[in-house]
Protein backbone atom coordinates (compact mmCIF):
# COMPACT_ATOMS: atom_id res chain seq x y z
CA UNK A 1 0.00 0.00 0.00
CA UNK A 2 2.90 2.33 0.83
CA UNK A 3 4.37 1.77 -2.64
CA UNK A 4 1.02 2.46 -4.29
CA UNK A 5 0.71 5.79 -2.48
CA UNK A 6 4.25 6.54 -3.62
CA UNK A 7 3.20 5.88 -7.23
CA UNK A 8 0.09 8.06 -6.80
CA UNK A 9 2.20 10.96 -5.50
CA UNK A 10 4.35 10.84 -8.66
CA UNK A 11 1.44 10.98 -11.06
CA UNK A 12 0.63 14.24 -12.77
CA UNK A 13 -2.31 16.22 -11.39
CA UNK A 14 -4.58 15.25 -14.29
CA UNK A 15 -3.70 11.58 -13.75
CA UNK A 16 -4.43 11.81 -10.02
CA UNK A 17 -7.86 13.28 -10.77
CA UNK A 18 -8.57 10.57 -13.32
CA UNK A 19 -7.63 7.73 -10.96
CA UNK A 20 -9.96 9.18 -8.30
CA UNK A 21 -12.77 9.34 -10.88
CA UNK A 22 -12.13 5.72 -11.88
CA UNK A 23 -12.16 4.74 -8.19
CA UNK A 24 -15.58 6.42 -7.86
CA UNK A 25 -16.85 4.51 -10.92
CA UNK A 26 -15.56 1.25 -9.44
CA UNK A 27 -17.41 2.00 -6.19
CA UNK A 28 -20.66 2.51 -8.15
CA UNK A 29 -20.02 -0.72 -10.05
CA UNK A 30 -19.64 -2.66 -6.80
CA UNK A 31 -22.91 -1.20 -5.49
CA UNK A 32 -24.68 -2.22 -8.72
CA UNK A 33 -23.19 -5.71 -8.54
CA UNK A 34 -24.39 -6.20 -4.96
CA UNK A 35 -27.85 -4.80 -5.79
CA UNK A 36 -28.14 -7.21 -8.69
CA UNK A 37 -27.37 -10.07 -6.30
CA UNK A 38 -29.99 -8.75 -3.90
CA UNK A 39 -32.58 -8.82 -6.68
CA UNK A 40 -32.05 -12.54 -7.19
CA UNK A 41 -33.97 -13.52 -4.07
CA UNK A 42 -37.40 -12.07 -5.04
CA UNK A 43 -37.00 -13.51 -8.56
CA UNK A 44 -36.21 -17.00 -7.25
CA UNK A 45 -38.95 -16.71 -4.62
CA UNK A 46 -41.54 -15.68 -7.22
CA UNK A 47 -40.65 -18.53 -9.59
CA UNK A 48 -40.49 -21.31 -6.97
CA UNK A 49 -43.41 -20.33 -4.73
CA UNK A 50 -45.89 -19.53 -7.55
CA UNK A 51 -47.34 -16.77 -5.44
CA UNK A 52 -47.79 -13.10 -6.07
CA UNK A 53 -44.66 -10.98 -6.14
CA UNK A 54 -43.13 -10.23 -2.76
CA UNK A 55 -43.17 -6.50 -3.39
CA UNK A 56 -46.72 -6.30 -4.80
CA UNK A 57 -48.13 -5.18 -1.44
CA UNK A 58 -45.87 -2.13 -1.59
CA UNK A 59 -46.27 -1.45 -5.30
CA UNK A 60 -49.94 -1.60 -6.36
CA UNK A 61 -48.78 -1.47 -9.94
CA UNK A 62 -48.04 -5.22 -9.85
CA UNK A 63 -51.55 -6.12 -8.54
CA UNK A 64 -53.01 -5.25 -11.93
CA UNK A 65 -51.19 -8.21 -13.53
CA UNK A 66 -51.50 -11.94 -13.13
CA UNK A 67 -48.73 -14.20 -11.88
CA UNK A 68 -47.06 -14.87 -15.28
CA UNK A 69 -47.25 -11.21 -16.31
CA UNK A 70 -45.57 -10.25 -13.05
CA UNK A 71 -42.78 -12.75 -13.80
CA UNK A 72 -42.35 -11.35 -17.31
CA UNK A 73 -42.25 -7.74 -16.07
CA UNK A 74 -39.82 -8.56 -13.30
CA UNK A 75 -37.54 -10.61 -15.58
CA UNK A 76 -37.54 -7.77 -18.10
CA UNK A 77 -36.55 -5.25 -15.40
CA UNK A 78 -34.00 -7.72 -14.09
CA UNK A 79 -32.49 -8.04 -17.59
CA UNK A 80 -32.43 -4.25 -18.10
CA UNK A 81 -30.68 -3.81 -14.76
CA UNK A 82 -28.01 -6.41 -15.61
CA UNK A 83 -27.55 -5.05 -19.12
CA UNK A 84 -27.00 -1.54 -17.75
CA UNK A 85 -24.57 -2.90 -15.15
CA UNK A 86 -22.52 -4.73 -17.80
CA UNK A 87 -22.49 -1.76 -20.17
CA UNK A 88 -21.24 0.33 -17.27
CA UNK A 89 -18.66 -2.39 -16.51
CA UNK A 90 -17.49 -2.31 -20.13
CA UNK A 91 -17.08 1.46 -19.98
CA UNK A 92 -15.11 1.30 -16.71
CA UNK A 93 -12.93 -1.53 -18.06
CA UNK A 94 -12.03 0.56 -21.12
CA UNK A 95 -11.29 3.66 -19.02
CA UNK A 96 -9.17 1.60 -16.62
CA UNK A 97 -7.19 -0.01 -19.46
CA UNK A 98 -6.66 3.35 -21.16
CA UNK A 99 -5.60 4.99 -17.90
CA UNK A 100 -3.08 2.22 -17.14
CA UNK A 101 -1.74 2.44 -20.71
CA UNK A 102 -1.27 6.20 -20.28
CA UNK A 103 0.64 5.60 -17.04
CA UNK A 104 2.81 2.99 -18.77
CA UNK A 105 3.64 5.44 -21.56
CA UNK A 106 4.26 8.20 -19.05
CA UNK A 107 6.49 6.22 -16.68
CA UNK A 108 8.42 4.45 -19.47
CA UNK A 109 9.07 7.78 -21.18
CA UNK A 110 10.19 9.38 -17.91
CA UNK A 111 12.55 6.53 -17.02
CA UNK A 112 13.97 6.48 -20.57
CA UNK A 113 14.43 10.25 -20.37
CA UNK A 114 16.10 9.93 -16.98
CA UNK A 115 18.58 7.38 -18.33
CA UNK A 116 19.47 9.75 -21.16
CA UNK A 117 20.09 12.56 -18.65
CA UNK A 118 22.56 10.51 -16.59
CA UNK A 119 26.28 11.16 -16.79
CA UNK A 120 28.67 9.20 -18.94
CA UNK A 121 30.17 7.69 -15.77
CA UNK A 122 26.71 6.38 -14.84
CA UNK A 123 26.46 4.51 -18.14
CA UNK A 124 30.00 3.17 -17.80
CA UNK A 125 28.94 1.56 -14.51
CA UNK A 126 25.69 0.09 -15.86
CA UNK A 127 25.25 -2.80 -18.26
CA UNK A 128 23.12 -2.30 -21.36
CA UNK A 129 21.05 -5.45 -20.69
CA UNK A 130 20.14 -4.09 -17.24
CA UNK A 131 19.02 -0.74 -18.69
CA UNK A 132 17.02 -2.39 -21.50
CA UNK A 133 15.34 -4.74 -19.03
CA UNK A 134 14.51 -1.89 -16.61
CA UNK A 135 12.85 0.15 -19.34
CA UNK A 136 10.94 -2.89 -20.62
CA UNK A 137 9.56 -4.11 -17.27
CA UNK A 138 7.37 -1.03 -16.81
CA UNK A 139 4.74 -2.92 -18.85
CA UNK A 140 4.78 -5.71 -16.26
CA UNK A 141 4.64 -3.07 -13.56
CA UNK A 142 1.39 -1.71 -15.00
CA UNK A 143 -0.02 -5.24 -15.09
CA UNK A 144 0.75 -5.47 -11.37
CA UNK A 145 -1.21 -2.27 -10.75
CA UNK A 146 -4.12 -3.71 -12.71
CA UNK A 147 -3.91 -6.94 -10.69
CA UNK A 148 -4.05 -4.94 -7.47
CA UNK A 149 -7.09 -2.97 -8.67
CA UNK A 150 -8.84 -6.22 -9.64
CA UNK A 151 -8.01 -7.79 -6.26
CA UNK A 152 -9.46 -4.73 -4.51
CA UNK A 153 -12.68 -4.88 -6.58
CA UNK A 154 -13.18 -8.61 -6.05
CA UNK A 155 -12.41 -8.32 -2.32
CA UNK A 156 -15.07 -5.63 -1.88
CA UNK A 157 -17.60 -7.68 -3.88
CA UNK A 158 -16.79 -10.79 -1.83
CA UNK A 159 -17.17 -8.79 1.37
CA UNK A 160 -20.60 -7.57 0.21
CA UNK A 161 -21.69 -11.13 -0.68
CA UNK A 162 -20.61 -12.35 2.76
CA UNK A 163 -22.69 -9.62 4.42
CA UNK A 164 -25.77 -10.69 2.41
CA UNK A 165 -25.20 -14.36 3.33
CA UNK A 166 -24.65 -13.55 7.02
CA UNK A 167 -27.86 -11.50 7.15
CA UNK A 168 -29.80 -14.46 5.77
CA UNK A 169 -28.02 -17.36 7.51
CA UNK A 170 -25.16 -16.93 9.96
CA UNK A 171 -24.07 -20.60 9.85
CA UNK A 172 -23.76 -20.69 6.08
CA UNK A 173 -21.93 -17.38 6.13
CA UNK A 174 -19.46 -18.84 8.59
CA UNK A 175 -18.76 -21.79 6.28
CA UNK A 176 -18.20 -19.45 3.32
CA UNK A 177 -15.78 -17.36 5.42
CA UNK A 178 -13.85 -20.49 6.41
CA UNK A 179 -13.75 -21.51 2.73
CA UNK A 180 -12.35 -18.10 1.73
CA UNK A 181 -9.79 -18.02 4.57
CA UNK A 182 -8.58 -21.54 3.69
CA UNK A 183 -8.07 -20.43 0.08
CA UNK A 184 -6.03 -17.41 1.10
CA UNK A 185 -3.92 -19.39 3.56
CA UNK A 186 -2.92 -21.62 0.66
CA UNK A 187 -1.22 -18.62 -0.94
CA UNK A 188 0.58 -17.22 2.05
CA UNK A 189 1.76 -20.54 3.50
CA UNK A 190 2.59 -22.66 0.44
CA UNK A 191 2.81 -20.41 -2.62
CA UNK A 192 3.70 -16.78 -1.92
CA UNK A 193 7.41 -17.19 -1.05
CA UNK A 194 8.03 -19.58 -3.91
CA UNK A 195 6.34 -17.20 -6.36
CA UNK A 196 8.64 -14.39 -5.19
CA UNK A 197 11.69 -16.57 -5.88
CA UNK A 198 10.49 -17.59 -9.36
CA UNK A 199 9.65 -13.97 -10.21
CA UNK A 200 13.19 -12.87 -9.25
CA UNK A 201 14.76 -15.74 -11.23
CA UNK A 202 12.75 -14.95 -14.36
CA UNK A 203 13.89 -11.30 -14.22
CA UNK A 204 17.51 -12.40 -13.80
CA UNK A 205 17.38 -14.80 -16.74
CA UNK A 206 15.56 -12.19 -18.82
CA UNK A 207 18.51 -9.83 -18.29
CA UNK A 208 20.97 -12.61 -19.14
CA UNK A 209 19.07 -13.41 -22.35
CA UNK A 210 19.17 -9.73 -23.36
CA UNK A 211 22.92 -9.84 -22.75
CA UNK A 212 23.12 -12.94 -24.98
CA UNK A 213 21.29 -11.12 -27.78
CA UNK A 214 23.51 -8.02 -27.60
CA UNK A 215 26.78 -9.93 -27.34
CA UNK A 216 25.88 -12.45 -30.04
CA UNK A 217 24.57 -10.16 -32.74
CA UNK A 218 27.00 -7.38 -31.82
CA UNK A 219 29.94 -9.70 -32.57
CA UNK A 220 28.39 -11.87 -35.28
CA UNK A 221 31.35 -11.33 -37.64
CA UNK A 222 33.86 -12.60 -35.04
CA UNK A 223 31.58 -15.52 -34.11
CA UNK A 224 31.42 -16.68 -37.73
CA UNK A 225 35.15 -16.17 -38.40
CA UNK A 226 36.18 -17.95 -35.20
CA UNK A 227 33.52 -20.66 -35.69
CA UNK A 228 32.24 -20.15 -32.12
CA UNK A 229 28.52 -20.54 -32.81
CA UNK A 230 28.22 -23.53 -30.49
CA UNK A 231 29.60 -21.61 -27.51
CA UNK A 232 27.03 -18.81 -27.86
CA UNK A 233 24.20 -21.24 -28.60
CA UNK A 234 25.07 -23.22 -25.48
CA UNK A 235 25.09 -20.09 -23.30
CA UNK A 236 21.79 -18.89 -24.81
CA UNK A 237 20.08 -22.27 -24.40
CA UNK A 238 21.21 -22.54 -20.78
CA UNK A 239 19.63 -19.20 -19.84
CA UNK A 240 16.55 -19.89 -21.96
CA UNK A 241 16.07 -23.28 -20.32
CA UNK A 242 16.48 -21.86 -16.81
CA UNK A 243 13.96 -19.11 -17.54
CA UNK A 244 11.50 -21.61 -19.03
CA UNK A 245 11.81 -23.93 -16.02
CA UNK A 246 11.09 -21.03 -13.66
CA UNK A 247 8.06 -20.07 -15.76
CA UNK A 248 6.75 -23.67 -15.80
CA UNK A 249 7.04 -23.95 -12.01
CA UNK A 250 5.44 -20.55 -11.43
CA UNK A 251 2.51 -21.17 -13.80
CA UNK A 252 1.98 -24.61 -12.24
CA UNK A 253 1.79 -23.03 -8.79
CA UNK A 254 -0.63 -20.42 -10.12
CA UNK A 255 -2.99 -23.17 -11.31
CA UNK A 256 -2.91 -25.16 -8.05
CA UNK A 257 -5.12 -22.77 -6.01
CA UNK A 258 -7.92 -23.05 -8.61
CA UNK A 259 -7.98 -26.83 -8.25
CA UNK A 260 -7.94 -26.56 -4.48
CA UNK A 261 -10.75 -23.99 -4.52
CA UNK A 262 -12.95 -26.23 -6.70
CA UNK A 263 -12.60 -29.09 -4.20
CA UNK A 264 -13.44 -26.76 -1.31
CA UNK A 265 -16.39 -25.36 -3.27
CA UNK A 266 -17.89 -28.83 -3.73
CA UNK A 267 -17.50 -29.42 0.00
CA UNK A 268 -19.23 -26.12 0.80
CA UNK A 269 -22.11 -26.97 -1.61
CA UNK A 270 -22.64 -30.34 0.06
CA UNK A 271 -22.68 -28.77 3.52
CA UNK A 272 -24.98 -25.98 2.29
CA UNK A 273 -27.54 -28.45 0.85
CA UNK A 274 -27.44 -30.55 4.00
CA UNK A 275 -27.96 -27.57 6.32
CA UNK A 276 -30.86 -26.09 4.38
CA UNK A 277 -32.77 -29.31 3.66
CA UNK A 278 -32.33 -30.63 7.21
CA UNK A 279 -33.53 -27.40 8.79
CA UNK A 280 -36.57 -28.22 10.94
CA UNK A 281 -39.76 -26.33 10.43
CA UNK A 282 -38.86 -25.07 6.99
CA UNK A 283 -41.28 -25.69 4.12
CA UNK A 284 -40.07 -27.28 0.94
CA UNK A 285 -40.70 -24.07 -1.04
CA UNK A 286 -38.84 -21.97 1.51
CA UNK A 287 -35.95 -24.44 1.62
CA UNK A 288 -35.66 -24.57 -2.15
CA UNK A 289 -35.87 -20.79 -2.41
CA UNK A 290 -33.13 -20.33 0.19
CA UNK A 291 -31.03 -23.09 -1.37
CA UNK A 292 -31.31 -21.62 -4.86
CA UNK A 293 -30.49 -18.13 -3.59
CA UNK A 294 -27.46 -19.23 -1.56
CA UNK A 295 -26.18 -21.32 -4.44
CA UNK A 296 -26.48 -18.28 -6.72
CA UNK A 297 -24.58 -16.15 -4.18
CA UNK A 298 -21.85 -18.75 -3.72
CA UNK A 299 -21.54 -19.28 -7.46
CA UNK A 300 -20.89 -15.54 -7.71
CA UNK A 301 -18.50 -15.64 -4.74
CA UNK A 302 -16.36 -18.50 -6.07
CA UNK A 303 -15.05 -16.54 -9.13
CA UNK A 304 -14.20 -13.66 -6.77
CA UNK A 305 -12.26 -15.97 -4.47
CA UNK A 306 -10.54 -17.60 -7.44
CA UNK A 307 -9.55 -14.24 -8.95
CA UNK A 308 -8.31 -12.92 -5.61
CA UNK A 309 -6.20 -16.03 -5.04
CA UNK A 310 -4.90 -16.12 -8.62
CA UNK A 311 -4.06 -12.44 -8.85
CA UNK A 312 -2.59 -12.29 -5.34
CA UNK A 313 -0.32 -15.16 -6.37
CA UNK A 314 0.56 -13.15 -9.47
CA UNK A 315 1.39 -10.15 -7.30
CA UNK A 316 3.81 -12.28 -5.29
CA UNK A 317 5.32 -13.59 -8.53
CA UNK A 318 5.86 -10.06 -9.84
CA UNK A 319 6.99 -8.54 -6.55
CA UNK A 320 10.61 -8.40 -7.76
CA UNK A 321 9.50 -6.44 -10.84
CA UNK A 322 7.36 -4.16 -8.67
CA UNK A 323 10.31 -3.39 -6.36
CA UNK A 324 12.71 -2.80 -9.27
CA UNK A 325 10.42 -0.25 -10.92
CA UNK A 326 9.68 1.42 -7.58
CA UNK A 327 13.42 1.75 -6.99
CA UNK A 328 13.80 3.31 -10.43
CA UNK A 329 11.03 5.78 -9.65
CA UNK A 330 12.67 6.70 -6.34
CA UNK A 331 16.21 6.82 -7.81
CA UNK A 332 15.28 8.83 -10.88
CA UNK A 333 13.14 11.91 -10.99
CA UNK A 334 10.02 10.85 -12.91
CA UNK A 335 9.58 14.38 -14.19
CA UNK A 336 10.61 14.81 -17.80
CA UNK A 337 13.95 16.61 -17.68
CA UNK A 338 14.06 19.73 -19.77
CA UNK A 339 17.01 21.90 -20.70
CA UNK A 340 18.08 23.85 -17.62
CA UNK A 341 19.84 26.55 -19.57
CA UNK A 342 19.23 28.58 -22.66
CA UNK A 343 21.64 27.72 -25.46
CA UNK A 344 24.02 30.50 -26.42
CA UNK A 345 26.79 29.99 -28.95
CA UNK A 346 30.16 29.77 -27.24
CA UNK A 347 32.89 32.18 -28.36
CA UNK A 348 36.42 31.47 -27.18
CA UNK A 349 40.05 32.07 -28.06
CA UNK A 350 41.71 29.34 -26.01
CA UNK A 351 40.91 26.06 -24.31
CA UNK A 352 43.06 26.06 -21.19
CA UNK A 353 43.89 22.79 -19.43
CA UNK A 354 45.38 23.51 -16.01
CA UNK A 355 46.82 20.95 -13.56
CA UNK A 356 44.46 18.29 -14.92
CA UNK A 357 44.48 14.87 -13.24
CA UNK A 358 42.33 11.80 -13.73
CA UNK A 359 42.31 8.25 -12.39
CA UNK A 360 40.15 5.15 -12.62
CA UNK A 361 39.23 2.98 -9.68
CA UNK A 362 40.11 -0.69 -10.02
CA UNK A 363 37.07 -2.51 -8.55
CA UNK A 364 39.05 -5.68 -7.77
CA UNK A 365 41.98 -4.06 -5.97
CA UNK A 366 40.01 -1.00 -4.78
CA UNK A 367 42.97 1.14 -5.84
CA UNK A 368 43.11 4.15 -8.15
CA UNK A 369 44.94 3.89 -11.47
CA UNK A 370 46.36 7.25 -12.57
CA UNK A 371 45.85 8.05 -16.25
CA UNK A 372 47.70 11.35 -16.04
CA UNK A 373 48.35 14.05 -13.46
CA UNK A 374 49.08 17.79 -13.46
CA UNK A 375 48.56 18.07 -17.21
CA UNK A 376 48.83 21.59 -18.62
CA UNK A 377 48.14 22.56 -22.22
CA UNK A 378 46.61 25.47 -24.17
CA UNK A 379 44.63 24.77 -27.34
CA UNK A 380 44.16 27.86 -29.49
CA UNK A 381 41.01 28.37 -31.52
CA UNK A 382 41.10 26.94 -35.07
CA UNK A 383 44.31 25.02 -34.42
CA UNK A 384 44.83 21.27 -34.54
CA UNK A 385 46.11 19.34 -31.54
CA UNK A 386 47.39 15.84 -32.15
CA UNK A 387 47.27 13.33 -29.30
CA UNK A 388 49.46 10.23 -29.61
CA UNK A 389 50.19 7.29 -27.38
CA UNK A 390 49.61 3.56 -26.98
CA UNK A 391 46.27 2.05 -26.03
CA UNK A 392 45.33 2.82 -22.44
CA UNK A 393 47.62 5.84 -22.21
CA UNK A 394 44.72 8.28 -21.77
CA UNK A 395 44.03 9.64 -25.27
CA UNK A 396 40.28 8.93 -25.17
CA UNK A 397 40.06 9.99 -21.51
CA UNK A 398 41.63 13.35 -22.40
CA UNK A 399 39.04 13.85 -25.17
CA UNK A 400 36.19 12.87 -22.80
CA UNK A 401 37.43 15.44 -20.25
CA UNK A 402 37.66 18.23 -22.83
CA UNK A 403 34.14 17.40 -24.02
CA UNK A 404 32.84 17.46 -20.43
CA UNK A 405 31.59 13.86 -20.51
CA UNK A 406 34.02 13.09 -17.69
CA UNK A 407 34.82 15.44 -14.82
CA UNK A 408 38.41 16.05 -13.69
CA UNK A 409 39.51 14.57 -10.36
CA UNK A 410 41.62 17.67 -9.85
CA UNK A 411 42.48 20.66 -12.00
CA UNK A 412 40.43 22.74 -14.41
CA UNK A 413 39.38 23.01 -18.05
CA UNK A 414 38.52 26.56 -19.05
CA UNK A 415 37.32 28.43 -22.10
CA UNK A 416 39.40 31.55 -21.77
CA UNK A 417 38.58 32.66 -18.20
CA UNK A 418 35.40 30.59 -17.78
CA UNK A 419 35.52 27.18 -16.15
CA UNK A 420 33.86 24.36 -18.10
CA UNK A 421 30.84 23.63 -15.88
CA UNK A 422 27.10 24.24 -15.51
CA UNK A 423 25.71 26.59 -18.17
CA UNK A 424 29.07 26.93 -19.96
CA UNK A 425 29.37 23.14 -20.23
CA UNK A 426 25.78 22.84 -21.46
CA UNK A 427 26.40 25.31 -24.30
CA UNK A 428 29.88 23.89 -24.97
CA UNK A 429 28.64 20.37 -25.66
CA UNK A 430 26.25 21.68 -28.29
CA UNK A 431 29.34 23.01 -30.13
CA UNK A 432 31.13 19.65 -30.33
CA UNK A 433 31.30 16.74 -32.75
CA UNK A 434 32.92 13.40 -31.99
CA UNK A 435 34.21 11.06 -34.66
CA UNK A 436 35.55 7.58 -33.92
CA UNK A 437 35.17 4.01 -35.09
CA UNK A 438 32.43 3.65 -32.46
CA UNK A 439 30.06 6.28 -33.83
CA UNK A 440 26.65 4.69 -34.16
CA UNK A 441 24.96 4.67 -37.55
CA UNK A 442 21.18 4.63 -37.13
CA UNK A 443 19.12 2.20 -39.20
CA UNK A 444 17.84 4.89 -41.52
CA UNK A 445 18.69 6.85 -44.65
CA UNK A 446 21.82 8.79 -45.58
CA UNK A 447 19.84 11.96 -44.91
CA UNK A 448 18.67 10.79 -41.47
CA UNK A 449 22.23 9.94 -40.43
CA UNK A 450 23.75 13.21 -41.56
CA UNK A 451 21.00 15.34 -39.95
CA UNK A 452 21.24 13.06 -36.87
CA UNK A 453 18.31 13.76 -34.49
CA UNK A 454 16.66 16.42 -36.68
CA UNK A 455 12.97 16.22 -37.53
CA UNK A 456 12.20 15.86 -41.22
CA UNK A 457 10.63 19.30 -41.45
CA UNK A 458 13.78 20.96 -40.05
CA UNK A 459 16.34 19.23 -42.30
CA UNK A 460 18.21 21.60 -44.63
CA UNK A 461 18.58 19.56 -47.83
CA UNK A 462 20.83 22.13 -49.51
CA UNK A 463 23.24 21.86 -46.61
CA UNK A 464 22.98 18.06 -46.79
CA UNK A 465 24.15 18.10 -50.42
CA UNK A 466 26.90 20.57 -49.53
CA UNK A 467 28.40 18.38 -46.78
CA UNK A 468 28.04 15.25 -48.97
CA UNK A 469 30.18 17.01 -51.55
CA UNK A 470 32.77 18.05 -48.95
CA UNK A 471 32.94 14.57 -47.42
CA UNK A 472 33.22 12.99 -50.91
CA UNK A 473 30.14 10.79 -50.67
CA UNK A 474 28.91 11.91 -54.12
CA UNK A 475 30.20 8.89 -56.03
CA UNK A 476 28.58 6.52 -53.56
CA UNK A 477 25.19 8.28 -53.75
CA UNK A 478 25.30 8.33 -57.56
CA UNK A 479 25.44 4.55 -57.57
CA UNK A 480 22.02 4.33 -55.91
CA UNK A 481 18.70 5.58 -57.23
CA UNK A 482 17.47 6.28 -53.69
CA UNK A 483 20.07 9.03 -53.34
CA UNK A 484 19.55 10.73 -49.93
CA UNK A 485 16.93 8.13 -49.02
CA UNK A 486 19.32 5.21 -49.45
CA UNK A 487 19.00 2.98 -46.34
CA UNK A 488 22.39 2.30 -44.78
CA UNK A 489 21.19 -0.64 -42.65
CA UNK A 490 21.66 -1.38 -38.97
CA UNK A 491 24.83 0.40 -37.76
CA UNK A 492 25.81 1.08 -41.39
CA UNK A 493 26.11 -2.55 -42.50
CA UNK A 494 25.39 -1.52 -46.13
CA UNK A 495 28.45 0.77 -46.12
CA UNK A 496 32.16 0.11 -46.33
CA UNK A 497 34.45 1.28 -43.53
CA UNK A 498 35.56 4.33 -45.52
CA UNK A 499 31.99 5.24 -46.50
CA UNK A 500 30.93 4.89 -42.90
CA UNK A 501 33.58 7.36 -41.72
CA UNK A 502 32.79 9.81 -44.50
CA UNK A 503 29.14 9.70 -43.39
CA UNK A 504 30.20 10.57 -39.83
CA UNK A 505 32.38 13.41 -41.16
CA UNK A 506 29.38 14.68 -43.15
CA UNK A 507 27.39 14.61 -39.90
CA UNK A 508 30.04 16.78 -38.19
CA UNK A 509 30.09 19.20 -41.14
CA UNK A 510 26.30 19.47 -41.07
CA UNK A 511 26.37 20.33 -37.37
CA UNK A 512 29.01 23.01 -38.08
CA UNK A 513 30.70 22.38 -34.74
CA UNK A 514 33.33 24.67 -33.23
CA UNK A 515 35.44 21.75 -31.97
CA UNK A 516 35.72 18.31 -33.58
CA UNK A 517 37.28 15.28 -31.95
CA UNK A 518 38.79 12.49 -34.03
CA UNK A 519 39.35 9.61 -31.62
CA UNK A 520 41.24 6.87 -33.46
CA UNK A 521 38.74 7.56 -36.22
CA UNK A 522 40.65 5.62 -38.91
CA UNK A 523 42.34 2.91 -36.85
CA UNK A 524 40.21 0.12 -38.34
CA UNK A 525 40.60 1.25 -41.98
CA UNK A 526 43.18 0.07 -44.48
CA UNK A 527 46.17 2.33 -45.13
CA UNK A 528 44.94 3.77 -48.43
CA UNK A 529 41.51 4.74 -47.07
CA UNK A 530 43.10 6.09 -43.88
CA UNK A 531 45.35 8.43 -45.90
CA UNK A 532 42.34 9.60 -47.95
CA UNK A 533 40.31 10.34 -44.80
CA UNK A 534 43.15 12.36 -43.26
CA UNK A 535 43.52 14.31 -46.50
CA UNK A 536 39.80 15.12 -46.23
CA UNK A 537 40.27 16.21 -42.59
CA UNK A 538 43.08 18.58 -43.56
CA UNK A 539 41.10 19.94 -46.50
CA UNK A 540 37.78 20.44 -44.70
CA UNK A 541 38.77 21.28 -41.12
CA UNK A 542 42.44 22.24 -40.63
CA UNK A 543 42.72 25.95 -39.85
CA UNK A 544 38.93 26.33 -40.07
CA UNK A 545 37.87 24.47 -36.91
CA UNK A 546 39.46 23.57 -33.62
CA UNK A 547 40.52 19.93 -33.92
CA UNK A 548 41.77 17.37 -31.42
CA UNK A 549 42.96 14.21 -33.16
CA UNK A 550 44.10 11.09 -31.34
CA UNK A 551 45.99 8.41 -33.22
CA UNK A 552 48.49 5.62 -32.65
CA UNK A 553 50.23 6.56 -35.93
CA UNK A 554 52.56 9.58 -35.78
CA UNK A 555 52.50 10.05 -39.58
CA UNK A 556 48.80 10.89 -39.42
CA UNK A 557 49.50 13.84 -37.11
CA UNK A 558 52.35 15.57 -38.99
CA UNK A 559 50.08 18.39 -40.14
CA UNK A 560 48.98 19.20 -36.54
CA UNK A 561 50.00 22.52 -34.99
CA UNK A 562 50.98 20.77 -31.76
CA UNK A 563 51.29 17.16 -30.60
CA UNK A 564 50.59 15.93 -27.08
CA UNK A 565 52.49 12.68 -26.44
CA UNK A 566 50.80 10.44 -23.87
CA UNK A 567 53.50 7.80 -24.18
CA UNK A 568 55.51 10.05 -21.87
CA UNK A 569 54.69 10.77 -18.25
CA UNK A 570 52.59 13.92 -17.77
Structure commentary:
This protein is an alpha/beta fold. The chain has 2 domains: about 1-330, ABC transporter type 1, transmembrane domain (ABC transporter transmembrane region fold); about 350-565, 3-Layer(aba) Sandwich (Rossmann fold), CATH 3.40.50. It is built from 19 helices and 9 strands. The chain has helices at about 1-10, 15-40, 40-50, 65-115, 120-125, 130-135, 140-170, 170-220, 220-225, 230-275, 285-315, 320-330, 395-405, 420-430, 445-450, 460-470, 475-480, 495-510, 525-540; strands at about 350-360, 365-380, 385-390, 410-415, 420, 430-435, 515-520, 545-550, 560-565. α2 packs antiparallel against α4, α4 packs antiparallel against α7 (about 140-170) and α6 packs antiparallel against α8 (about 170-220). The two termini are about 55 Å apart.
Strand order of the largest sheet: 6-7-8-3-9
The assigned CATH architecture of the largest domain is Up-down Bundle
CATH class of the largest domain: Mainly Alpha
Mass-distribution shape? elongated
Largest sheet: 5 strands, parallel
**Any idea how many domains?**
2
